[in-house]
Design a protein that fits this description.
6-stranded antiparallel beta sheet; mainly beta
Length: about 260
């Protein structure tokens, strides 16, 4: 995969036992096979970078199927079959639609196991619909964290309690929104994706709306970085169990004085 030299002496050997999601040149997720380099783009028409990541496990066992009873919906319903930022799951996104009444409106997974003092990152792909904002929060086992995201402008809004909050642009108005926090006890936590009416909405506030946002692929993992989605089974048969992506390694550059261990 090296450009220069062209005789192969500069080529890397990439090793990874599992398949992996990468960001292709159209800024969509795309699954590549085991041992294929993960070349990620951050802009259309730009150049890719080699993305090497540690092993990661998604603690959310139904990361795609928001319509499943695994996910609790309150003050809102979900609508399947929406366009997603993925080559392999092109119509697997959902709309989260408010019920028009005044309430705390959310999609949540309860009782996800976390361990005291460990760092966790929760991420979800989101796109503005008739609403422009979401809020992400982790409840039991964490401090009173919350973070708003502006999906119209691709910026992080107000929030509190998280170590960090990030928003990353993908194709066609999609963003990857992520938050990082340290668990304060060993419990089953609750991960909430909340409909918000502004980038400064207070934590778990009630709002009145029948508006919607689109959501895709949630992931809760240990560590301080939102890594690439671990789920790669396009049949969805593997949902219901934790999915692990193995670590990337890249070796054999041919010049250890330039690129070492």
């Amino acid at each position: 995969y090296s450009v220069l030299p062209t005789d192969g002496t500069g080529d890397f050997t990439t090793t990874r036992a599992s398949k992996k999601n990468r960001v292709n040149s159209e800024l969509n997720l795309e699954i590549v096979d085991a041992n294929v380099p993960s070349l990620n783009y951050d802009s259309i028409g730009g150049c890719p970078v080699l993305n090497t990541e540690p092993q990661a496990t998604n603690l959310i066992t139904y990361p795609i199927s928001y319509g499943n009873s695994y996910w609790t919906k309150s003050g809102a319903t979900v609508v399947s079959g929406q366009s997603a930022p993925s080559v392999d799951f092109p119509t697997s996104a959902f709309k989260l639609v408010g019920d028009g009444l005044s309430s705390f409106k959310y999609l949540s997974r309860f009782n996800v196991p976390v361990t005291d003092t460990l760092t966790y990152t929760l991420s979800v792909f989101a796109k503005a619909g008739t609403l422009d904002y979401i809020q992400i929060l982790l409840a039991t086992g964490f401090a009173s964290n919350y973070q708003n995201f502006d999906l119209a402008n691709g910026v992080v809004g107000t929030g509190a309690g998280y170590i960090s909050s990030e928003i990353e642009e993908y194709s066609n108005g999609w963003y990857k929104c992520s938050v990082t926090a340290v668990a304060t006890s060993t419990v089953g936590t609750s991960a909430y994706i909340v409909l918000a009416d502004s980038a400064s909405m207070s934590r778990a506030a009630s709002i009145t709306t029948s508006g919607d946002v689109s959501l895709f692929m949630a992931q809760l993992e240990t560590g301080s970085v939102a890594t690439s989605p671990t789920f790669t089974d396009t049949t969805l048969a593997a949902e219901g169990t934790t999915q692990t992506r193995t670590a990337d390694t890249a070796s054999g550059s041919g010049n250890s004085t330039v690129i070492n261990s």
